[in-house]
Fold these 2 entries.
Entry 1:
Amino acid sequence: MKPDSRIYLAGHRGLVGGAILRVLRARGQQNLILRSSRELDLRDQAATFAFFEAQQPEVVILAAARVGGIGANSNLPGEFIYENLAIASNVIEAARRTGVGKLLNLGSTCIYPRMAPQPIREDALLSGPLEPTNRPYALAKIAAIEMCDAYRRQYGCDFISAMPTNLYGPGDNFDLETCHVLPALLRKFQEAQDSGAAEVMLWGTGTPLREFLYIDDLAEACLFLLERYSEPGPINVGSGEEVSILQLARMIAQVVGFQGSLVWDKSRSDGTPRKICDSQRLYALGFKPQVRLHDGLRRTHAWFLEHRSEARGVRTGA
Ligand code: GFB
């Protein structure tokens, strides 16, 4: 990308988009096109097409999506499938119509079958049934990959799809009913610590295994891929660091300084039993994540303490 490339970053206010924006600014990219969802509703096809016609971006980073943890995915399946299908189909088609030179489509490793061999390779896609708690979201993300690939075949579009593992970091959503496990635990332990509570209630059994990637590493990986990668199909972006939810809870309790006990609400779903992706294709291209989980947890905790009053999901008292 040239320093003056016209880059449209969709979703710049989210966890992923916010981190990509910081990296683009640090690199001195001068021509960033940014719109909040209030300014441009990407579910609105006519508005999206008109925006692309007017702005003529050269590069598009599709980080706008309806996302959430296991609770939001289970409770809002209709919103998750509709909004993600609409956003992806409008943006990808608008990019084709206006001759966008490069598009990065972001998904999630929940696109892979629930019982895929671990670590999950890209060729596991569509080889078995999906995890039911996030199937609507996963299917929308699979459709977006397929769309990029179909446009590559039919129209020669250079559209690529990156699949990050579970992400965390500054700027995350901390709303306990809709957020992912890591911000939920940081908040729950910190609030227990502040109030002197003796125990913290967590969801499920604590046995599921997850891989976590710090958001700045994902942002660097996105720019790396935009500059050096042009293939159909998904490419995984993971850290290789796998922990059980119980181990994660212990690490977070230690970072926060909470010494009380953990109580597991087994009426809440565990979701997929194990989800670590194989990122060898990305690593073989020369990319390596830099931030270890311990370090990333400390940074995210520090950010949460400093920004608690304005963090998403906390300010509203949700
Ligand atoms: O991060 P999380 O919500 O999503 O949950 P997934 C991960 C695991 O942590 C599950 C457990 O086994 C949860 O039951 N957990 C324990 C908690 N305590 C809590 C808590 O207080 N809050 C939350 N949220 N979880 C989502 C998918 O899957 O993650 C999406 O639904 C997407 O589609 C995304 O792929 C990355 O890792 O299970």
Entry 2:
Amino acid sequence: MPDFTPTPADKFTFGLWTVGNTGRDPFGESTRNALTAPYIVQKLAELGAYGVNLHDNDLVPIDATPSERDRIVTEFKQALSDHGLVVPMATTNLFTDPAFKDGAFTSADARVRAFALQKTMHSMDLGAELGAKTYVFWGGREGTEVDASGKLLDALQWYREGLNYLAEYSEHQGYGYRFALEPKPNEPRGDIFLPTVGSALGFIHTLDRPELFGVNPEFAHETMAGLNFVHAVAQAIDAGKLYHIDLNDQKMSRFDQDLRFGAENLKSAFFLVKLLEDSGYDGPRHFDAHALRTEDEAGVWAFARGCMRTYLMLREKARQWSEDAEIQAALAAYRVEDEELAQLTAFSQENAQALKNRTFDRQALGRRGPGLEQLDQLTVELLLGLRGNP
Ligand code: GLT
Ligand code: MN
Ligand code: MN
């Protein structure tokens, strides 16, 4: 039986805000005490994580003085080096403070937009100081409840100008960040701009420096919208734009639950892990989730351990899947190749004419059974431990 204990080589990361989540929700107060950042670093290192990510204000309170900031950052860096953890990704909190209640980069108030740029530049400085190379933009407050504001086209232009500005800043400072836009359909706004992975991919190509921007898809966010997360990630990989990923779980069409990875949709989690591993994605596997509100601190570490362990178990299942002779035979039978047609479907005027004249046995094509029921059942049996090594 393989050992599913994570090591830093697995590149598992957590946000300070994830294991640090105290269980507050819109209807109830915290159920757990806050944990300090150095303590989180120590515990994550003990569990075998690779790194820890943060918003500026997860570490430094928004109203800290410069000397308080320096003391906090020094202590945090000490903890990182004591425990061998890295900070691969940083981001800005542009959603908690009431100044951002109607948007940050997309606020109709030019002063708020400028303040959002200022806060993000300071946060990018902090991330760079900690060694982060990926910078995430989750536009939690970038959206609307009512469209009476009439700002939709302006908001997209303001968003674009803000991102262009910050990309210039990063290049000018020599930070070398790669930026990852994180889509979400709603919550906390009624409608959030750039609601899906596809929307973000489209928007990136309207930016001045599209090569600096990719996406940070989150399992829960596509699932909230009723979309297939694995398909969204495949499209991001296909576009060369999977710059980061937020792993968690979610029941469809509900509030953002941020459940433990694999807690709800095990089969999708399997196909996701398989896709990531097969694609050669070598970035961090970031868990953007938190322990259930019911849990105490022991539950938090059980949650963190569980996220990583499930990923590793699914990775092992993916390996078994690609070595299972019956599954591979079913897969091979599913695909039909045809050399003559491969030539005819390479475009030339002659080939096009030949293809137009070609006869197809339409009825036979329609009669063919591709064997997907059997292939899927074999997958289920493998996941349930009934094939190969359990
Ligand atoms: C917030 C959100 C997440 C984002 C984080 C980055 S903050 O917890 O729900 O999905 O990834 O800003
Ligand atoms: Mn989420
Ligand atoms: Mn997220």
